Every structure is written in C-alpha cells, then in structure tokens.
Structures
1.
Amino acid sequence: MTTVEEALRLIQEEQKVVFDSESIATSKALNRVLSKSIQAPLALPSFKQSAMDGYALHIGTGLNYEVVGEQKAGDANTFELEPGECIRIFTGAAVPDSANAVVIQEKINRFENKIEVKKLPQVGQNIRAEGTQIKKGSFPLEKGQVLNPAGLGLIQSLGIKKVEVYRNPRVSVIVTGNELLPPGSNLSEGKIFESNSLILKTALNQIQIEPKIITSVPDRLEDTQKVLKKAFANSDLVLISGGISVGDYDFVGKALQKLGVNEIFYKVRQRPGKPLYFGKKGNVFCFALPGNPASTLSCFYVYVLPLLSRLMNFSNYGLRREMLPIAHDFQSSEPRALFLKASVNQGKVSILDHQNSSMLISFAKANALVYLPENGANIKAHEKVDVLFLPDLN
C-alpha cells in the first residue's frame, strides 16, 4: 500500500502536459494563466492627471491665484494657464500642460474667483505624470502570470478586451452506484440522494473549471467501461467517484484495466480515502475516488488539486500548508495517516467532530484539514500540527 508522501511524489513526478493557448474575453479570465505577455498599447496614465481634488496652478511668484475655469474627470484638456492662474480640478481629471502643481482644496482659501494658497507647492506636486504606472509598449504582465481581479482590471484599463491564456484541462466527472438517485426523486428504501457530482463540480468551479461530462453509471461492468471509454476520449482528466473498492459490485478497477489504463498507484495508507486510484492512459490522467462523500472531497483537495494546479500552469500546487498550534489535546491510535476536518480561528486549529468518511457535516463547517502522519498521535494543546487550508470562498 502506498504512503501519502509516496502518492504525492508520484503525482508530482508525472510529466507536465502543456495545453494549447486560447483567446478569451478579459472579463472571463479570472485565475487563468497568460500564455502570452501583455504589451501595453498605451501609457497609464495616458495623460497628465490630478491625484487630488483641488486647484491646478501655473506657479507664479506669490500666493494668490486667479481661478479661470474648472476641469472635471473626463473633460478634454483645453486650458492654457499663465503664471498666477489656476483652475478648479478633480481627482483623475486631465491637468493642463501649462499647470505644474495641484494644491489640495484643504490648503487654500477661496474668495470668489481668487484663491490664496497657504504655502507655495513644489513643481509636480499631486500630479500623476503620463506613464508613471506603465509605459506604452512595455510588458506589465508576463507570460505565466495568474490573472487575479487586480490583473484583470489592469488589462481592461489598457483597453484590452481579449487575452491569450493556456487552455484549461478538460475534466469529466463520473459517479457510480446503483443506490444513487438525483435530488427530487422518490426516495425508496435502500436508496440515497447522490451528492458527489455536485461536490466535484463545485470544487472544480472554485478553480474556474467547468466539467465537460457529468454522468452517473450503474454498477455493471459493461456500462462502466462504455462510459469510461467516452470520457477518456474527451478529457484530459477523468474523475470517478465510487466503484473502486474490492466489493462484488465495484467494477471501476476492472473497467480501467480493460481500457488499458496504466495504474500508477492504488490504495493509500490514509483515512479517509484508502481506496484511491491514480492512473494514466496516453496523456489522459485518471483518479478513481472513494465513494463516501467526505473521502471524495478529501482526496480531491489533497491529490487532484495539485495535479490540476500543475496542468493549469500555476506556480503553487495544491492547498496552502502551515504549522499551527492545536487548541486542545488530541489522541488517536489509528495506524494510518489522517486527514481531519478542522477549523482555524485566531491562529489556532480545532479538530471537528463527525470525522467519519460518510459525513459531510464537519466538512461543511471546516476551513482546513489537519494532517497527522502514520502510527497514531498523542498531541497536547498548543503543540503545532500540519494544517492544510481549504480554498477560501469569501
């Protein structure tokens, strides 16, 4: 059986696949990775701009200035100021070429069409010169940059409507089980409402991936093989939930073998998620995840997310980790490694109740996982433990 560390190493060692580029709308490029550097078609700011509400002056010899007009943000630059003249101006408005300082409104006294400045300003004061943020023709964002909200805003402020990014992986989600019913069905005895497809879909949506195929399949070998064959033909990554254990009606492993998928590892010495499978056929990766909902989600965050991060050309792979003090004593005699749902609050971590692999209630309240290596644990309050932070939805 594979250890957690060995499984993560095997995933990390898989040759990185570089996907083609695609051109998409800037507004839809959140968390995408640039495949081509952004070249600025204009300077930012593109004109001499006021940084404050106040008065734009052509500095003269005294403290008194005549107000000859007003310049709002968006107005064309039409004023030609003589020494001793000024205009009322607002933040973001174009500063006349003949003005060489802006005095904030709190530092003047106004008398009808004249102002008195309390102190002569320095040349260039409160003026944003053209190109102080970005020079025309420069490359403000380089290839490989992950586009966050600020980056998207910067690109749009340059007037760029489309960007070249790496194509996201095509991911298929397949859920197995005769006992599963869609929500809204008549819940007969022995059946349960299926939730893993929504769990995986929304977890993928968190990193801006929309699954290409989401389907369920009954526990029959022929049906499982047929659905998997289609998924491998249309995907870069196939995620399967359930059917990977060793029960009489677990057909995923047999179907993968018949399709010629190369097994990289199967079964990890951990809880939850022992019957985890990772394989590859050609350039298509495959994870067969345990069917219990908490196991499915734990394995997704710990193993699938790092692979997807690499495929998406992120520089950081998987969940952020940090050693934090635990808020209480904790003991376990479990010989396998543990991934425990937990809550981090004010710099301390608490392990939650309801850790069973079939229970989502603790996951719904968790913002982290605590990782405890193999062979049990006897941890005292305030000792540091390995914490994996779950993706933030806030």
Note: Residues 49-128 form a domain with the Molybdopterin biosynthesis moeA protein; domain 3 fold (CATH 2.170.190.11).
2.
Amino acid sequence: MEPLGGLPLSRTPDPRAASSLGWGVMGPGSIADQFAASLAAHTTQRLMAVGSRSATRSADFGERHGVARAHASYASLLADPEVDIVYIATPTSHHHEGTLQALRAGKHVLVEKSFAENAHQARDMVDEAQRSGLFIMEGMWPRFLPIMDRVRQVVEAGRIGDPTCLQADLGGYEPYEPTSRMYSPSMGGSVTLDRGVYLTALSSMLLGDATSVHAVGALAPNGVDAQVNVTLGNERSGVAQLHATMRAHTPAHAFLAGTKGSVEFAAPWYLTPRVTLFDSSGQPIAWGTSELRTHVDALCFEAAECARVIDSGGTQSSLMPPSESVAIMTTLDEVLCQVRSTERGRR
C-alpha cells in the first residue's frame, strides 16, 4: 500500500484481464525471448507460432517457450491461421518490410522499437495499416507501465504546473564491433534508434511534439552514431535535454521540472522503482513505487494493451498512437542528419 502523500493510483488494468489473442513472433532474438516469457508469466495471451529465416533458430525458440508451430520462413508464419497478431522483433532495418508483409497477410502488428529506420518508412507502415483496417503500434514498453500512468496523471492534473524542462539519459558501454547489432549499418545499428528513441518518446509523452531539434554527437569508425546529445523544444517553450550513448555507462536518470513543481524518476527511469513529486520549493510532497524490475515483468503491459484495443474493434492505442511514432521518427531523422553532417564535416 502506498503511504499518505502517494501519487494517484494507476488506471492500468491487470494484463491477465485482457482478452486472449493468438500471437506470432517474427524474429526469435533476445527481446523476443523476454516478450515470450512475459506473456507466459503475466497474461492469458497465446503464443502460437514463431518464424525465422533460420529453421534452427525458429525451432530452438519454439522449444524454449513451448511453441509447437516453429516456421522456417516469415511467409509461413504469416500464413498461419492461428496467428492474430505478429510481434515484429527483427532488427530495425527489417521492421518496414516485415510490417508490410504482416499487414498484407491480414495480421495485426506490434512493432518493436524503433518503429522504423526513418519517418518515410514509418508513414508507409501506418498508411498500410489504415488501408487494411488493422491494428498497428510501436512497442514503446515503458509507456504502458502502471508507474508511468501515475506520472501521466500528475502532469495532466497540473500538479507541476506547465512542464518546462526534461533531463534524461540512457547509456551503456558497447565495445566497437562493426558486425554487431548496435554497430552494423545493415541491421539498423544506431544509438539514436536504439536508445535515443526511448528518450525522445519520454519527451513526447511529457512535453509533447518537438518543434525544434539541436543535436551533437560522435560517430563510430564505420559512421554509425555512437553518442548523441539532443535538445528538443516545443511550441509551449518546453525543453528536453537528452543524452544517449554506447561509449559509456550513464545513470539512466530522468527529471521533469514545471512551473509549480517537479517529478524525479529514480534510476533506471524506464523501470523506475520510485517516482517523487516535489513542490515549487523543491520539497518532496508525494511519491510512488513500482515492484517491476525486469523486461519479463514489463513487456506484458504493451501486449495487453494491444489485445484490449483489438478486442474493442480499434486499430490504434491512445497511449502510443501511430501518428506519434511517425512524429518521433521525424525527430530522430533530424537528430541523425545533424550528428552525421557535423561529425563528417570534422573528419
């Protein structure tokens, strides 16, 4: 039980209460392993099938998660009549193609972040979903957590006044290996698309759409962005200071300031154990805690949101609408353009 002075109670439904869909996984990598484990542990969703371009990888994933229908191709997965919705868990460079294939096969889609490699691809995916009348959503999983709903209520109620400044970071050291997922251009390697997208989505949720972008950063030897520092502005004079890197470990701290108060996320902000609300003088006045600590604890909430919306006949979630994913990708396009042009000009 939250102590007196707690944040508003979460409005997030129990993931187990969502109607059950038949899920298929496209791309049996590490995030798909965690997603499958989360479905099994915390929902009534049915993981029916997995598909990979490698029969061995598909079969191994099926064995790990008790999935009998292990397909040796994406086409076979998408033809599976037991699959209602496909979780696109391939590298970012394959999201566009995989999403279009799934939608054209009549499947709803949950797309792992980043939604696409660029805004053009993102718009193409959203347009196809609209033409098909099917559900599409980016798997920006921190947004669906109960603690984030409590923060959203605080901001919406005006308890910190007008939000004016967000400071947030996300970094971890990744040794340079040009064939790895993080550094490989052919796999969509990019700290902006892998970590900066989380920060940009947090800013979008708390401050709204960015209307100005200023970015600096550093490139790896093969030209992939390895570190970015971004300042975003919006029409209401809000500013976000965001830092993403794979050149060093950073605290993963976030702090939102407003005209009447502020909100602090204990690290790591994306799975924060505690959120504290401060008044205008910096005194703590309310707090909220979360017991969620791992991806397996957390990924179930986005899956449940998909099931609830689809069961109601909807094609998009109000918590992560596809138009916002396109806007975020537009911002990230500009970040990458500025970082790459500046750094290449120095070489």
Note: The chain has a mean pLDDT of 96.
3.
Amino acid sequence: MRPTLFSEKFGISADELDKANLLDPYIDTDTPLFIDPLLIDKSSNDIIRKDGLVQFQQYFEKVVRLLTMSEEENDAAWIGAEKLLSLKEPAENGVGYSRSKRAGTSRPTEVRTQLLKTVKQVIKLGSKDPEMLSLMGFLEAGVGPDTISDFTTIAMMGALAEITHAFCSANSIPLSKNDLSDMHLPVIFRNGRLKPVVLVPRDILRDLPVTDSWGDVWAAAEHNRALRDKLSVMLAGIAQPTVVEQKEAIKRAVTQSGEIFDAFLEAVKSAATSYDQNEDIKGFFTFRDFIKKNQTFNTGKSYDIRKRPEEVMRLILDALDVFRHNIDNRNLWEALWAGDQPKRERAAQLLFFAIADGYCRGHDIDNVSEPNFGGGPVDFAFGDGCKSRVIVEMKRSHGSVVSGYEKQLERYKKAAQTDFAIFVVINYGRGAKSIDEIRKIREQKLALGERPSEIVVIDAQKKLSPSKLR
C-alpha cells in the first residue's frame, strides 16, 4: 500500500509543514534525502543554524578529543571514540535509504573503524573542523550520505526535538514522553512499540552527496591548483575510474597536507546546496502532491482477481495505460523533467506508484515498492500472494534497457517465483535502438512458446502546449 505522510497521520494540513519549511515525512517508509552537515549554518531555521550547529560541533569535538588522546587502536580513548561515533540509523527522522520499513540499523564495525582512522589521519594534518565529516563520503568506499546524515541527526537531536515539539504544540498534535529526548514528541506505533518522530528542516536536506560525479569533484577543486594537480596525478592512467578508485584518489590527494584538505573542505562547503523542491529531480514532492490531493484514477473496469495473475496483470496494464494517458494528454510529462534534463527513474516510479495505488486499494491488491525477493530490489510487486504476483521494472530509455529486460528482470522473476512481469521504458527521446532490440527479444521468445515479459513504452518527451501547435 502507499506510504502515509506525517500530515495525514496527525490530521493537519501539509501546508503548515511547508510554511515552517519542514519535511512532511512518511511515517512507514523513508524518504531518500539526507541531512548534510555542510548546510546547517546555511539554514533559515534559527534553532538549527545556532543550537543545532553548536550541538553538532560539540559532539564531534568530543570524538576529536578522544582520538587525539588515543595512542593506538583499541586503547581506552579509541574505544570511547567508537562508542561516541554511533552509526546506528535513527529511524525517528524519516529520511534515508530504508524504503520498506523504518527500523534503524547499524552499519558494519569495519566502516566505523576506517572512518575513525581517516578522521585521526586528518587531525594529524592539523584540521579539526567538525564539518570534515561531510568529506568522508569522498574518502571512504563504505561511507555514503546516509552514514553522514545519521551521525549528524544523532549529534543534533536536541535541536530537532525542540523544533518538532514547538511545531506540534502549535498545531495541536498529541505529544508524549519518550526515550529520545526530554521534550515530549509525537509518537507512532511501529514494530509493536510506540516510537517518537522528529521533523527536519527541508533546507538542510539533499538527495545525493556532492561526490555523485567526477564533475562535482572537479568543480570543488577548480579554485585550488595544488589540489587539482594532485587529483590529476592520482587519476593518471585511469580511463573510467570505479567509485572505489575515485575515493582512493581523492583521499590520497587531499590528505597530502592540512592546507590542501582545508581548501577542499572549503570548496565543498561553498558548493553545498539543499534539495530543490521546485526542480524536484527525484519527484518526491510531485508524489506527495498526488497523495495530498488524493488523486485516484479509475477506468470503470472490473477485475476478477480470483483468476489470479492474469487479472492482476490486466489491472496493472490498465493502470499503466492511465499513467501513459496522463503523460501524453494531461502534461504529466512535465513532472518527469528538471529543466532540459530527464529526472531520475525514481520520479517516474513514484508517480506510477501513486496512480497504481488507486487501482490496488479498490481490489485488495498489495502494491509494494522495491521489494527484494532474493535477487535484488525490483521496482514494484503487485498481487495478493505469491501465486498472483506481478512484478514491474521501470527504466529510462537512455539507461540499461537491454540488459534490464533480458537479464535483470528475468533474475527478479525467478526470485519472485512468477512468470508475469512488465518492463516499462520511459522514453525521453533517446534509446530507440534499445527499445527495438528488446521488442525483438520478446518476439523471439514468443516464437519459442515462452512467456516473455510485457513491454510498455511511455513517451515522456517534451511536448508543445496546445496554444503553440499549428
């Protein structure tokens, strides 16, 4: 079933959260946005910009003090730093990668150990800026934006609790005692227990780390010749560096001296920006608007779900047809573009999820986003049990279309124990050859008497408004 927004759960207008510049989180799944500590002192929220920053700095300074005292790994000071540098995912803030449920998890011990080693290495260079933690996504293969976000959340939980308490009190949202903060907070029932929730200002959230591409690295380095030269040397001979090779190269370059490290940190801080709601590259807010408006889509058809997967397949194909119609004829294609660039696959996935949910709720069909049956997370699974399961995978036309259809989807089908699957291609104007190729693959399978996955191509290319058509 579709996720539930905080505003829905507590019966308030989502506009109130917008006015307060707070994220309206899902209470039963995570929004894949992340708190970036580089954005704390840029926030428009006074509590975050002042108290939150102080709390974050003080927390990190304790880690630095212990690592400075430590003479070797696993001595008393090192163990103290390990305990303080908690990498447990704080499920209370509703952001991160965990889309199927909101249960905090702890990252592997070796990630924390390597993180502490690198921090200590940087301290020896003479840098003690707490915001150095933001660069760990550049330097360590096992450290992603979620790790940095979770540590930051824990460090400034006091400020987040204060913001949440004030907002909820002003909007008559019930508050309760909790084990997270001295302040009373809203609670939700999860995993058999009542759990507190904290709200997060939107302007300290981003969708991906700055290290998402080499372009970002060079942009951060362009004003520092020494750093740029170091990176060039480190990358010499690597035509297409892997993520691990990228991070190793950056780490070797920026840890040459304290001056270079501080210059890189300052460059990254200057470039840091929050997630743009207007551009909405991943479609989070467009999806939320669908839920707020309670938009439903119905063709008036009936389905005999007792006939199992065949009817579930027909229902989902009809939902896709409505999705296509809204993109073709109701300008929904605009929600799939950010300026002149196609949005990421997640934007199309969320919009289809919202449309399909209206069908599924009316026929008691489960609509699960990104389930993992053992072969990796498929985009969607529909049905009322394994015997009527239909899976859907969605790709952009300029992505890995052929391997997605021929290999990836087949692996998902095997893991999900179903022969019923739909491969959706969102056509942004590139990839016609790949679309033709998977159609040929499907025809070949049909000729052999096999049951190939269905193919649905949706034209998301930019379209002229009716007033401009001649």
Note: Confidence is low (pLDDT under 50) at residues 97-105, 209-214.
4.
Amino acid sequence: MATPREKVSATIDPIWTAMRQQAEAMAGREPALAGFVHATILQHDQLEQALSYHLARKLGGEDLSPLAIREIFDDAVFGDESIGLAVRADLSAVFERDPACHSHLDAFLFYKGFHALESYRVAHWLWREGRKAMALFFQSRISQKFAVDVHPAAQIGQGIMFDHATGIVIGETAVVEDDVSIMQDVTLGGTGKESGDRHPKIRRGVLLSLGAKILGNIEVGEYSRVGAGSVVLKPIPPHCTAVGVPAKLVNCDCGDNPSQAMNHYIEELPDNTG
C-alpha cells in the first residue's frame, strides 16, 4: 500500500510546479537569496515538505528545536491530506485577493498571515489527536512569532486569508467557514467568563474588515461584511453589511463574493436628521 507521501507525490500539483518555477526565477534575479530559496523550495519534492521545513525554522527555538517541530509538521501534513488541500486553497486566496501579492511563492515565503494560519492547522491537528499540551505550545509560539492568537480547538475552513494578520484573535469555540477574509486586529471573542460554546460562527464568504470585533456565540451570515472598527454583538443575516459601535445593518446587498472582492467601502447613509 502506498504511503501518504507516495500518494501526494503521484498527484499533479500545479501550484507547487508554479512555485518551483518562480523560485528558480527569484534565485536568478536575487543571487543573495539563492541559498534561502534553494533550501526552502528547490531542495524539496513536495509543497508539504517545503512547508514543514520553512515553518519549523520560524517556530523552532530553545524549548523545541526546528528538527522536532519539523517532525511534528510532517506527521500532520502527511497524516491528514486535508491540511495539504487547505494550504493550497489558502495560498490561492492570498494570491487572488491581495493586490500586493504577485505570486504563490511570495505568499509562501514572506506572508506571516499565511504562516500563522498553516501553523494553526498543525496545532488543530494536534488538538484533535489528543495532544493538547503540544497544541497549546504551538499556539503560544505562533502568537509570539506572528502576533496571531488562534486557539487550536477553533475550527477554520479552507481558502482563508489573514491579511497583514497582526492582532488577529480567534477563540476556542469559534468557527470560520470556507473562503473568509480576515484583516488585521480582528477579534472573534467571548463576552465574558461564560463557558461552553461562546464564540462567533463566521459563515462562508464573509469579509471582516480591519479592527472588527465579533463577540459572543452569534452568527455572521454567509457572504456578509463587517466594517472597519465595528463591534458586533448581535447576529448578522446573510449578504448584509454591518458597521458601527455597536454594529448596525446598513444594507443587505453585499454582492456575490465580498471576501473575494475585498471591497471595504461602506456607502454613506442618507441624512434623515432634518
């Protein structure tokens, strides 16, 4: 029977093929980075191997060596093929939605939002495997290295973009479905010291703009938007835009894919005061 590694090797992987081509071009343009590019990309046969190597070097330290972290990453990504699928979907999300990102390789090498998200995926795998102490260790290291704090028990789908990422906080019982875009300084938190299911449920295709705070076990409906700096304490219906402190609905016509359009502009409300 083929091993997980052999199964992955046998598949056609256009993203990895493109990344290797981009890496060769980068090494040619920037000779000073050639060693870094070769070690991180070109010496590996699969994207999963490159990911384990790259993130282990970022997360490793005195408490847990890069080699030990790489072994954990390998166990996760080759033991659960859904992680590799999510990695590719996340890379595509960054490349397609961020106008500052010009290749999958740029996102993979340099974007800490991507690094934090994929590291969380391994922490989540550890949590589900019952290795909760190691999962919490990873959460702590991710927070220290990338300024992103995601509880390993949180459930996050595929095709996610953490844009800029600094200050993102996602609580233990939060759910983020597929194709969501989350800007910097966003919090998916609780409202106090309650226990149990206490964090938001963010449905497919949502755009959470910078500084948004969604608090409590409430639902943000699919293909909706939360404006910059808003504080959401009540559920938001699908396809609606909510802004303000506390947030209120301003329209329910967000278009088909707000998380992909990345349109943060909120139309000015008519003045009815006079």
Note: The mean pLDDT is 92.
